[in-house]
Structure formats: C-alpha cells, structure tokens
Amino acid sequence: MREMVKGSNVSLATLSENVDSVIVSLGWGSSTGEGDADVSVLLLNADGKVRSDADFYFYNNPVAADGSVQLLGKTPTADGNEDRISFDLTAVSSEVDRIVLAASRYEGARFGELEGVKLALADGGGEELLRFAIDEADAVSAIIFGELYRRGEEWKFRAVGQGYDAGLAGLAADFGVDVDDDATAEEAPDEAAGEIQTDAMATPSPDGPKRQETLGAVPSPRRPEGEDRPRKPTARPRTAKKKITLPKAARKTLAENESWKDARLFPASALKSDRERETRATSVLLSVMAQVPEFGRRLTAAFGAPAGRMETFTEVTLPHGDTPRRPDGVIRVERAGKLWTALVETKTNGSALKSDQVQAYMDIAARRGYEAVITLSNDVALEGSPLVEVKIDGRRKHKVALWHLSWAEVAHQAQMLIRHEGVGNAAHAWLLQELLHYLLHENSGCHGFQNMGPAWVPVRNGIDDETLCQGDPRALEVVESWERLIRQVCLRLGGELGQKVLPVQRTRRGTDPKALRARLADQFCLDGRLQSELRIEGTPGVLAISADLRTGKLRTSIEIPAPEQGYPLSWAKRLVRRLAEAPADLHIETLVEGETAGPRGTLERLRPEPADMLPKESAAQVAGFRLSLLKGMGSSRGNAESGFIRSVDDAVHRFYTSVVVHLDNATPRRAPSKEGTTTG
How far apart are CA 201 and CA 8, in angstroms? Predict the structure, then answer.
C-alpha cells in the first residue's frame, strides 16, 4: 500500500491491474463520536469546470446515470465514520479531465474538530492501494482531499489536502455549479473566504525528472466585490432531476373486504422448507437486480463491480474436484467488453453460513477468474469479526474478494430507492415494491438478524444470579449480537425516514474493534447493561438505548442542549408545548452544569407546572434536558412478539415517532474563531 503525502501523485496502473473500477473512502472520527461530514464529487472538464450541474454529486444527487459515480453512504468504523464512493473509470466520459474528491461540514462545524481525517483508495477487488492522511485540517468547513485525473490513457491520483471555509455550496459554485438562490441557506460564514495556495499542484512527477505534472489550480473561494458589501449566504445546490417514488398515501382498494389479498409477483405463502426459501429468495433478488439497474448497481458497486449490462443466474453447476458445486447464484456485469463476475451464496431463515462451503466457492472463483464471492444471510457482518473464516492462497496471482450482505441491507436499499430517492420509471418502482413486500413477508425467511444466539439465555441467567464473570466468552457473544442488532435497527429506521442513521462510535483513533468488544463485554458482566447510541440526521442529539438485564427494562433517551438565547423558564415552557402529543409517562430531567442530577419528573406532572423543571438555586446554569422512556424488554432470544429483538425495535420506533419528531432540529453550533481560512 502506498502512503501518499500532500502534493504527491501516482499512476493507478502501477499499483494494481484491477483499476477499471475503484472505491474511494473518506474517513474521520472524533473522541465524542459526534463528528460528521458529507462527501461530494465533481467531474471537471479541461477548463476546471463542471459541464453541467449533473456533474456535481452529493447527498441529494448520489448516483450518475451512466454508473460512473455512486455515493455508497457512510459505514461506521472503530475510529468514527467512513464515507465510500464507487467509480467506474471506464464509464467516465472522455470530456472529463479530472474528478475532485471533497467533503464539507455543516452548521458552523470545522474539520479541525475531527480526528483521523484521511482518504483511502481500493481497487475493484477491494484491496487498498493507497492512503492519504490529512494532519492539519484546521478551522475550515470544506476540504478537497484529492483528485483522479487523466494522463493519456491512464488514470492517476493526486493527494491535494487543501481546505477553505466556503462550505458545500461555495465549493460547488467555484467549480461552475449553478446554485439555486431561492433554496434554504446551508451555511453563512462570517468572514470572507481566503484564497487557496496550490503550489503543490506543480509537484514533479515520480515518473521521471523530465516530466512536470501541471494541472490547473483548484479555484479559490470567491471574494466579495466590496469590502463593506454584506456577503450573501451560500445556498443549497439544486438536486438531480426528479425520479419516480411510490406515493405515500395508500391507494383505494376495490376488494370487497379486508380478508382479500392482493395478487403478488413474488408469492411467499407456499414456501415450506429452508431450501425452497433460499432458492426463491435468490431468484427473486437477482432477477430484480438485473431488471432495475439503479438497484443492481447500488448493491454491487460497493463490491467493485462496474456499471454495465448485468445478467444474473441461479443454480449454476461448476466443477470442483470429484463433486461439482452449485452456488446459489452468479452475477455477471459487462462493460466495454470487460466482464466482472461474482458467485453468490445465500442463506435464509437464520441459517448460518458454512465455512467449508464458502471456502470451496473462493477456490472455484480463484481458478475460474471470478472477481468476488458474495454471501447473503440474515446475519450482519461486524468490522474485524468475519462471519466465516476462509484461507486465501497468497501464491495465486488472481485475487478474489469476499463480501457479505445482510437481508436487512437489501431491504434498506430497496426502501431508500422507492420511497425516498426514486428510480427511473414506474415499472422499476413497482418491481422494487414487490421485492420489498416479499422480503418483509413472514414466510420469506429474509427478515434480517433475528436471533441473539445460544449464549443469550445462559448470560441472562448468569446476570440474574450474579454468577457471570469477566472474561466469559458467552458475554462477548452477546455483545457482538447486540452490535449486530443495533446496526440493523439503524438500517430499518434509516429506510423508514430516508435519513442517515448511524451508530455512534465513541472510541479513540486506531482502537482495535475486537479489543473494544472485549472491554464492553467485561463491563457488561459488571453492570448487566447493553448500551448504544444512534445519530439520526436532523435531530438535536444522539438517541441512546440501554437494555438493563438486571431490571428487564429498556431505556430510550435523548439529551437536547439548552438554546443559546432566552431564559430557562421560557425553554421549559417551549419544551412542554413541543411535547404536547408525547406519552404522559415520558421522563424529563434537567441537566445542570457541574451537577450529576437535576430536577426530574414525568411529562404528565410537569405539564401544568413547567417551572418545576428548573433548579431551585438561581445561580445554577441549565445545560439542557434529557428525555427518556422506559419499556419492558422481551425475554426470549428471538424475534417473536415476546422476543428481545422485537422489543428493541419497538422501543426505538416508539421513542422516535412519539418524542424525537416533536423536537426542534439540531441546534446550530457556534463556529470557532479563526484567524486564517486555509490549511497546509
């Protein structure tokens, strides 16, 4: 792997033979786990400008129509978050001279508040080729991490690492994107933006001393024409062209009574055995992937597949020694005469993947030149803890990547497309709706993670009778199952809301995920509590979940900061008004600076007297409020009505829909004072 420094460049072809498609990851973290940013990509012509607004890809325009660019979204890591972008370089128009990779923060936040700001680039097989760490982010709200650019017939990467404070809209406008002045202002920096020094852009190429790489300088933020002229707030860039989503209102039915069931393209009621479920689920999924390009591309881009004509097959027989093997499916994607292929192994109804089976498919893929093996099951993969152990023969020149998908992730992506982001036409939306209905059917076996594992009952008993000791491997199994459950809760809630929902990682940079889980397991043995936090885009704080196995209670809570202006009594009255439709048993606790506990009570008691929320000491400073709901948790390990998994899902859903939706959006944070506006 190549470690890049600011201003250096490298040819991708010298790092790997498999660079027709690449995945770029932009990562960052914070000690509190609350730092976040949004990535953006700009395709520029030889003049350093976008050809049209369609060449600007960000959170409201995540996918290119030709498949050349796709924003894959955030993935939690031990350090924080990692935002990945897939590029099919063979699909990039010849008019595009370079591709700018950037990220921006919002609501006055700066990159200097984050840790471990970095970029990584992997080839089509998932092998990391290069890494670029940005050590001096400073007080800027946007950073250009790097760029991919053409030199003849090859693509090269340059580590840029330049930042400025103009934000997302300013960055877009500087590269020629038309900004909608009537849109809601996203950022309004107080100071005029400074120029970017781009002396690194003329760094000599490592290819040889005779060749000098000279690219156009990255444009600097525009200055106001007059010193005394007030700066116009930057605006949100326009979104992509409108796509088709399903209407939210249910259509009127022509059925005589409610017992009649709609005819379905993919019926699930007749399935009786696990084998039938696996066969049907594989065929249904792969057929929809081939027929709905947006959906198929979204699921395979993260695995290094290019954008192109996709064909899918089931029950394919492949030779393997004396006994031929029959993987559940095969995916083949053709682009510009080149072929990308993957074997698919499917499990449903909670069945576990088998190591020997996956190992055989990895060996077959290596011999036959397949790029990947994709496993698909109800389980959720964790960082640093593979679902199956396989051996990779390092002597083989052809490398095969092993990837995993959860059925919950498949349902999430279908939900995001048909309910929030849209697809190309109504037929595609209908196909995805039929797929989603099938996946959610109680008989399909594709419900995602739904079993806390065999260690759940003994661990609960050990906590009840206080015999569970630190270092018990069963406690670690429960902690891992809890992490899988939380990741699935994020997928489901994010699919319903159409917003980013991610688990908060409050760890230091470089923390080993396995070591972190071991520490959490030891703490779990001591206090009997499983705890996690979720960050939901647009909410004023993180949603905390705590499962206390000693008391059998689930607690969902959120801490909201006190407003920066006004009086505590006004804050209390406004909060009670906002929570007019919240449950009466909602607990409200006032957070007082310098004290561990403040006044508290139920919403029912505080409604007539909001002043009871305030501390008696007039000098005490109110820092915010904590809102909590308690709920009994299920006892069984599964997903039945009385199960623990169902109770966690219901608790999060109830708390969000009855409490969080009534709160004001995230309170803007004060931007730190700064003397300069550039980094490096």
Answer: 9
